[in-house]
Amino acid sequence: ELYLSSRRQLQSCIRDSDIGVQNGGVWYDGTRYVGGENASVSITVNGESVDPTSYVIRDGDEISITVTES
User: Fold this and answer.
1) Which of 32, 9, 38 lies closest to 19, judged by CA?
2) Cβ of 60: how many Cβ atoms within 10 Å?
3) 28: part of which helix (H) or strand (E)?
4) CA distance 47 to 66
5) Quick one: which of 37, 15, 53 has its CA closest to 67?
6) How many Å is the maximal CA-CA distance in the chain?
7) Which comes out higher in pLDDT, residue 24 or 29?
8) Quick one: average pLDDT of 26-34?
9) Which residues of 41-59 are buried (b: 16+ CB within 10 A; e: fewer)?
């Protein structure tokens, strides 16, 4: 379960869930997925692509992290 509260950056909340996000990549369970190298990585909020390092979560946001291995 991912604890989300307003006024926190999306990247910080994702990090708290044991999912890493940095420089266009996502890592989970010891594997790093990098967009364009070994995977397609998409992070969206309410269906819109966002920069997780700057997006601030708002009450009611629906967050989706999709990784498709190449």
Assistant:
1) 32
2) 7
3) strand 25-28
4) 12
5) 37
6) 35
7) 29
8) 79
9) bebebeeeebebeebebee
Tokens in use for 16? 């708290």
- Token pair of 3 as six digits: 């604890």
Residues 6+ away with beta carbon under 8 Å from 2: 13, 14, 16, 17, 63
Alpha-carbon distance of 5 to 66, in angstroms, equals 21
**Residue 53 — left, alpha, or beta (φ > 0 → left; ψ -120 to 50 → alpha)?**
alpha
Place of tokens 């819109």: 48
Which residues on adjacent β-strands are paired with residue 41?
A: 67
- Burial class of residue 26 (count of CB atoms within 10 Å of its CB; 0-12, 13-18, 19+): buried
CA distance 48 to 30: 27
- Quote the pLDDT of residue 67: 79
Structure-block tokens of residue 63: 């967050």
